Amino acid sequence: MAEHEGEKPESLLEKIADKIHGQDSSSSSDSDDDKKSKVEDVQAKIFRLFGREKPVHKIFGGGKPADVFLWRNKKISAGVLGGATALWVFFELLEYHLITLVCHILILSLALLFLWSNASTFINKSPPHFAEVRLPENCVLEVANGLRVELNHALAILRNIASGKDLKKFLGVIAGLFVLSVVGNWCNFLTLFYISFVLLHTVPVLYEKYDDKIDSFAEKATIEIKKQYAVFDAKVLSKVLSKIPKSPLKEKKKD
After folding, report:
1. Under a CB-based contact definition with an 8 Å cutoff, are residues 127 and 120 in contact?
2. What does the alpha-carbon distance between residue 63 and residue 66 come to, in Å, rounded to a whole number?
3. Which residues, including other chains, have CB under 8 Å from residue 159's CB and lie 6 or more apart?
4. Residue 61 has what pLDDT?
5. What is the structure's pLDDT at 198?
6. What pLDDT score does 148 carry?
7. Dist. CA 112–CA 108, nearest whole Å
8. Distance CA 65, CA 85 (A)
9. 216, 47 Cβ separation under 8 angstroms
10. How far is 106 from 99, CA to CA, in rounded Å?
11. pLDDT at 58
C-alpha cells in the first residue's frame, strides 16, 4: 500500500510536467509558425527585379555554369572570359576567318603529333598515347531536348503575342526588336555576341553584390513607367482602339 501511495504523487507530478512541456512546445511551435509567416509576408512585400523569388545562383541553374557566371572560381571565369576575348580579337581585329583558324590549328597539331610519333623511335621514348574521344549519347540527347523545349517555349510566346491578347507585351517586343535592329547596324553579329557574353559575366555579379540598391531603384523606375503608361493609355491608346472598327461577330456575341 505504501508503495502505491508513493507512486501516486510522482505520477501526478509527471502529468503536470508533461502538460507544462506540451504547452511550451505548442506555444514555441506557434511562435515559430508566426515568425515564418511574418518573414514570408515581409519577403512578399520586398520588390525584386523581374519578380525574382530565388537567389541569382539558383536562377542560373546552381551548377558549374552558375559558378562561372558569378565568379565563384575566379581562375575559371577569367580563363573563359579571356578565351572569348582572344577569339574576338582573332576574328574581329585581326580579321581571321573561322575556317582558316580551325584549319591552321588542325594542321599545326596534326604535324606536331605526327612528328612526335615517328621521332619517338629514334629518341628511345614511348610514342604519345591518343585517348579515344566519343560523345556520350545521353549528353547529346539532353542538350537537344533542352533546345527543343526552349524553342517551343519561344514559339508559344511569339504565337501569344501575335494573337493580339496582350498589348503591353506586344509593344515591349516591338520596342526590343527595334533596339536590337539599331544595335545590329552599329556592329556585326560576332561583336554583338561578344558584348552579350561580357555582360553575362559582369551584370549578374554586380546585381548579386548590390541587389538591394538595384531593386529599390528598379521599383521606383517601375512605378514611374506605370504612371507614364497609364497617361499614354488614357490619351493615345484608348482613342486609337476606339476608332478601330469591331467585327460583326463580336457585336453579335455582346447582344
Report:
1. yes
2. 5
3. none
4. 74
5. 92
6. 92
7. 6
8. 18
9. yes
10. 11
11. 79
pTM for the model stands at: 0.56
**Single-letter residue type at 98:** L
- Give the pLDDT score at 82: 93
Cα separation, 32 vs 211, in Å, equals 28
In this structure, the number of other CB atoms found within 10 A of the CB of residue 207 comes to 16
Phi-psi region of 54 (alpha: psi -120 to 50; beta: other; left: phi over 0): beta
The pLDDT assigned to 4 comes to: 46
Phi, psi of 96 (to 5 degrees): -80, 150
Q: How many alpha carbons fall within 13 Å on the CB side of residue 78?
A: 3
Q: What is the DSSP letter of 42?
A: H
Q: CA–CA separation, 205 vs 74, rounded Å?
A: 12
Quickly tell me which residue has 456575341 as its cell: 253
**What distance in Å separates the CA atoms of residue 198 and residue 216, rounded to the nearest whole number?**
25
Q: Are 230 and 223 in contact (CB under 8 A)?
A: no
Eight-state DSSP code of residue 50: G
Q: Which residue has the cell 542560373?
A: 60
Alpha-carbon distance of 98 to 1, in angstroms, equals 101
Q: What pLDDT score was predicted for residue 45?
A: 55
> What's the DSSP call for residue 124?
T
Give the per-residue pLDDT at 3.
44
Residue numbers in the chain where pLDDT is lower than 50: 1-10, 12-13, 26-30, 35-36, 38-44, 250
What cell was used for 153? 517555349
Which residue in 106, 232, 225 sits closest to 217, CA to CA?
225
| Alpha carbon distance 151, 193 (integer Å) | 19
Q: Which residue has the cell 519578380?
A: 51
